[in-house]
Amino acid sequence: MSKGVKLRFVFIGLAFCFLILCSTSFLRSEELSKGSILGFVYGEDGTTPLEGAVVEFKNITTGAVYESSESDDLGVFKIEGVERGLYIYGVKTAQGDFNSDGPLGVRIRENETAKLSISLTPYDEKVRSAIEEVYREQEIEGKSVVGRTVNYNPDTRIAEVVIMKGLLQVDDEIYTKGENTDFYQDVNFLGSEGSFAESIFSGQSASLAVKNKVEIGDLIYKVAKSGVLPLFSKPSGVASVVTGSPEIVGGVTVLCDGWQVPSNWREWWRNWWANFLNWLCRRWPNHPWCGNN
Fold it and tell me: Which residue from 177, 167, 261 is spatially nearest to 3, judged by alpha carbons?
């Protein structure tokens, strides 16, 4: 198992550990009890109810999947028996499947009902095909090569990247790897032909803001956010939470009462893991993990 794959298993495990340790009351039986999620599914405009949709929540740590009944003519759905935890979600419709745009935290207690509204935005055919291509490789390799650097300006920290496969989008998480390059980052800026761009497709070139120095020939990989693959490998669009009650939170950074994970938590965990490996391999140099260190 490669170090990158091991890291992602560790991120998930540590996130769950922090969810448990944030409050001593989490271990009490009422905190482990089950509640419900009640909500609405809307079309792209965020107001038109969508009938016949099925909402799925998948617990990141346990793998348990909770599925709603079909939404009614008002777009109302309900999921019973949900435990608190970290989740990805998706929506199945007659028009296709829609993956969530990120993980959610569910802080539900005994017999509580969390509420949220979900809006579905379909991809155009070009985006859908490109995302499907990326997901296929991520399912096998854990990441997908999308581009290669062809130029770099150290003064502006802007790299010119040629997209080789799929697409690259703002807010994607990427991994840049070369002979002397090895780092992760979120895509905060993409430019094309002097203008800001939301998406860059195969065969196009892009200006990419990078946090560290890169070299010509470095590969750009697209990785699953938070190390978790989405529910559907052939999505027709993206599902986004429009509104939600306090039991629904937008990620691990706000799951803990009185304590927050650092905003750069991915980098924080990677540094922690690197330090742990260094300590481990000094004490037990023959440990199997040290062969890849």
Answer: 177
Considering only CA atoms, which of 155, 159, 154, 137 is closest in space to residue 146?
A: 137
C-alpha 134/C-alpha 167 separation (Å) is: 8
**SS3 breakdown of the chain: % helix, strand, coil, rounded to 5?**
25, 40, 35
Question: Is the pLDDT higher at 91 or at 289?
Answer: 91
Q: What's the angle, vertex CA 88, arms to CA 87 and CA 93, rounded to 5?
A: 130
Q: Could you tell me the pTM of the whole model?
A: 0.65
Total Cβ atoms within 10 A of residue 209: 14
**CB burial readout 171-182, b (16+ within 10 A) else e:** ebbbbbbeeebe
Contacts of residue 23, defined as CB under 8 A and 6 or more positions apart, other chains included, come to: 31, 256, 257
Q: Are 134 and 165 in contact (CB under 8 A)?
A: yes
Cα-based torsion angle of the residue sequence 6, 7, 9, 13 in order, rounded to the nearest 10 degrees: 130
253-262 pLDDT, tens digit per residue, is 333 433 344 4
178/20 Cα distance (integer angstroms): 37
Domains for the chain: give ranges and CATH numbers. Answer: 28-124+229-258 (2.60.40.10), 143-223 (2.40.30.10)
pLDDT recorded at residue 13:
53
Residue pair 188/210 in contact (Cβ under 8 Å)? The answer is no
If one counts every other C-beta atom within 10 angstroms of the C-beta of residue 29, the result is 7
Residue bearing tokens 């946090």: 211
